[in-house]
């Protein structure tokens, strides 16, 4: 199954003509999952190879505007374009994010008379009080849902921290288990861990033939891990007729943070194929970065190393860092210096460092059988 | 006093890489007044010659997302950039728009923990029930202001229709009288009439000298329209010592509409130097346009003619119309055809037709004395 990740915005604080506000798409078999949706994301999507109409899930790491202000408009435009393209199927859109997100969407869509042609649900993560300074926490008064729900709003879940695993279970299906974990920022922020399930290896057709088994439903049951008893009484174990399993990939996408909270996130992200971490400012601005709830390349590298990630992707750069393509010789703030700083911190660790830019598309290859 | 108008977005329904969502800036002596603020307006502003930090007033014609979704982000970015540029003075921002706008801003800024360094007030226009179909009207439940106001939110006015003039008085000061008027659209929509006050003509210095008057405070009083009594008892009338007055300019900017409501708007816009009117679809799509609460070039032309406007500027084009610069020969939907249709409807009327494009800047020259 093909999997890739496309960065739609890699700037922090606000969108600019050179860097969009935070947004990235993880694509699996054509389904698009959107992580954060800063203002202008819909226009960035139009410029990319991706189709907004394929978005089935949205994950909002935290409620800062540079990660959220593009969401109402994106939903409206998806609906408008669905309308004009009858080929497009109407997706149910599941939206995950911190408490307050449901009210935000209800008010922004409601007051603007925005009609949607598809149903959506907002599943809210309940933050804990140690995810931000006190002034960054929303009062119950502010998130109380006043006013009628949007006609397309379906009931959403309230998801609380599972203390034993130090994480939030967002959903699991046949292909994926998706969890969230806590980060420390100016307001409560979350990271997401997308764990693909291991898939059974290929059927050994030679062995099956030798056992006298012809292609049919039994093949499916063996592949699904069931033992099968032949008419002769012989029990065939899946392990006899299957190649080695293909381990699932793991993609971890962290929201804005100056640190992860607790050990849970590191366990959860352990061995990630890709870890996406912010690096708002260079190491030389560490104090300022931390004051604003942000990280430097060195801090991002420490997280990647603690998780034994294979690849660390940096993004969410201060708008002072122009994209490499617009960099001029002698420019003071050089984004490639951020990469160098992370690489320096990771030397000999084997972690590869990648600098995200708007529209960078990153394939996430299948793992080899163990 | 220099006055000009810059179009930041001329597309309808949503922003695209080729046309921004609705926004334009009227600039008078460096002060910027923003009319509508679709998603991406802040990025369009960055690409223009204008400075977002000079915005002192915002006017929202109606609450559709393509006119509003950029406002929370714009305010945040103005604040951030004010912060980093201590030269910039902190403006009080007055925001005018339909009922519901105050709640929209309170919720979007509040839930996102958006800090602003400047105070703002939202002055709400109370629509009448004939401005839209019933389903386009907001219930009191939806606009009820729940939750605490933003720390920077100052009390705003509620402005109701002045029945005698069929208009809403937004404010008046030494230089301007600004009113709003009612339009018919899918949801309540407004137009704005910016009337510059007439200014006294220049002092006739020869005459003043002959009267024995030396430069000083008396000059100012005469210029302000006061009569002055000399020590000799001679009364000097302003009309004796002033050149002819310079008539104030009139700029009318209409929100989305399929018609203006009543005769008041036409009287108010009478003789406008510039009338900005939407033309979402060509004449051949009139039925569809009206169904969606929009206008064709012919309909816009009829309003301009009824007002005896000097110039009609068309904007808010369906995204099917590419900008002229991207138009290819043989393209089906040609935006210059919209101009032709308006010109055809206005032939012999003397009204000039201008097609807005993103970043078009239009000077509004001083009127000549009558
Ligand atoms: Zn951010
Ligand atoms: Zn943030
Ligand atoms: Zn519109
Ligand atoms: Zn509209």
From TrEMBL, chains A, B:
Record region (Disordered): 127-158
Cofactor(s) in the UniProt record: Zn(2+)
Residues covered by the Metallo-beta-lactamase domain: 246-317
Keyword field: Endonuclease, Hydrolase, Metal-binding, Nuclease, tRNA processing, Zinc
MF term (GO), any: metal ion binding
UniProt keyword Zinc, yes or no: yes
GO cellular component: a single term: nucleus
Keyword Metal-binding included in the entry's annotation: yes
Alphabetical list of NCBIfam families matching this protein: PRK00055.1-3 (NF000801)
PANTHER family found in the cross-reference section: ZINC PHOSPHODIESTERASE ELAC PROTEIN 1
Assembly: Homodimer.
Name recorded for this polypeptide: ElaC ribonuclease Z 1
The organism's taxonomic lineage, starting at the top: Eukaryota, Metazoa, Chordata, Craniata, Vertebrata
